[in-house]
């Protein structure tokens, strides 16, 4: 993925957050040069991978398969004594025409909330004991306190203000309902580890390889330099 694409996506996500009144924490505004000067006081940002996250899932086609995210708060399963938060919060931005591939999580459960813009469509499947997709069994879903059972592969439509609970091992994907506009989502979950807790089906990458065609506007959450001593 080109750095210019990442920079453009970051600015679009910033604009969407501002349009919906979501103020971002100070670390989201640090420039790459400022990160070079930050010491161990920001280890939580580095080690819990807070901040910006743009991915094309290694597919090289961000406008069709991609997602823009910000992790605002997070704990750590790797360092639970140092970072004991058991929860995480993200903002996610999905444009019309983009798709976030089918996956489940072994560890975390999450609520996905439509914070504004268009409508998001989420297709759901159970998983089988071998972790493949169960194309047959009905799925029990929970949307804003309402439990109901739907056929495998059902598409759940969330309008602004609506949410869905996603338990462990539930396959789900994301796309925007055509004609409704770009969507800002929130994710509230158990602490998040994107290096170890995503099972994509079929397999895809998670963090992009970057072609440096211009200087970075912001650093991504997996790009922070070591703390200045």
TrEMBL record:
Gene3D superfamilies: Jelly Rolls. InterPro entries: D-lyxose_isomer (IPR010864), EcSI_cupin (IPR047581), RmlC-like_jellyroll (IPR014710), RmlC_Cupin_sf (IPR011051). It comes from Anaerotignum lactatifermentans. Its cofactor is Mn(2+). The keyword Methyltransferase does not apply. It is an enzyme of class 5 (isomerase). Its EC number is 5.3.1.15. It comes from the Bacteria. It catalyses: D-lyxose = D-xylulose. Keywords: Carbohydrate metabolism, Isomerase, Manganese, Metal-binding. It holds the Pfam family Lyx_isomer. Belongs to the D-lyxose ketol-isomerase family. GO terms for molecular function: isomerase activity. This is D-lyxose ketol-isomerase. The lineage of its organism: Bacteria, Bacillati, Bacillota, Clostridia, Lachnospirales.
């Amino acid at each position: 993925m080109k750095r210019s694409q990442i920079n453009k996506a970051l600015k679009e996500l910033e604009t969407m957050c501002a349009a919906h009144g979501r103020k971002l924490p100070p670390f989201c505004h640090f420039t790459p040069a400022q990160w070079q000067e930050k010491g161990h006081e920001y280890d939580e940002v580095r080690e819990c991978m807070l901040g910006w996250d743009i991915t094309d899932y290694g597919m090289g086609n961000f406008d069709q398969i991609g997602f823009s995210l910000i992790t605002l708060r997070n704990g750590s399963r790797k360092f639970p004594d140092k970072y004991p938060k058991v929860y995480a919060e993200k903002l996610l931005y999905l444009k019309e025409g983009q798709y976030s591939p089918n996956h489940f999580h072994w560890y975390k459960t999450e609520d996905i909330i439509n914070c504004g813009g268009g409508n998001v469509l989420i297709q759901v499947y159970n998983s089988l004991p071998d972790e493949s997709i169960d194309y047959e069994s009905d799925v029990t879903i929970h949307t804003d306190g309402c439990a109901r059972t739907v056929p495998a592969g059902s598409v759940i439509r969330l309008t602004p203000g609506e949410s869905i609970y996603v338990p462990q091992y539930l396959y789900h994907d994301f796309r925007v309902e055509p004609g409704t506009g770009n969507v800002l989502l929130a994710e509230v979950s158990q602490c998040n580890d994107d290096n170890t807790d995503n099972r994509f089906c079929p397999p895809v990458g998670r963090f992009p390889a970057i072609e440096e065609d211009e200087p970075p506007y912001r650093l991504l959450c997996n790009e922070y330099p070591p703390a200045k001593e």
